[in-house]
Prior knowledge:
It contains 11 helices and 4 strands; from the N terminus they run ααααααααββααββα. It has about 210 residues and is α+β, with helices and mostly antiparallel strands. The termini are far apart. The protein has a 4-stranded antiparallel β-sheet with strand order 2-1-3-4.
Amino acid sequence: MLFGSVFLFLASSGWENMFSLEADQVTWPEKIIRPVIVYLALIVLLRVVGKRELAQLNPLDLVVILSLSNTVQNAIIGNDTSLIGGLVGAVALLAINAFFAYVKFRNKTAEALLEGKPVKIIEHGKLNEKEMRKELMTESDIDIIAHENGLDDRRDIDRLLLDPNGTFLVEGKDEIKDARFKREVLDKIEQLSKQLNELNAALNRS
């Protein structure tokens, strides 16, 4: 049954259509130019909108990121559903990404222009409301970030940076860091004491 289906597929026009670029619908230059335009447009849009979509602070941001790929799919491949057409689009995307990666590597100014600079959301324990409005971040969002980093809430944060790639650099206040350090030391001591007691018990039994 399986071999029969494979034979019918190979003998049908489906095999030919898989590897043929539908030139009457999407030309070779268009297939290359489309991914480049979409790539550049997404870079500009993400720079304009901000970095919170990359950070994915809530389900809404996650939905946007997941939907973007499906939204721009037709813009990249057009009406061409052939395997070759998809590969051409993929190669074009990888090529333009490699080009910009090289440009960023060679030029710091270009890197700052393309990706932006880190944003100081909290500095010395004080909220930067201007940057919060710019990034559309609420105090609840910052509380979530604090929880993800083992802190109770935003009041425990001394410094919070939002990197261009959407990750957060979180530094707790000195008293919080000291308390955490002491707690970790006490936990280690308790673990060592437990191991020593188990070792002594094993030696006594032998």
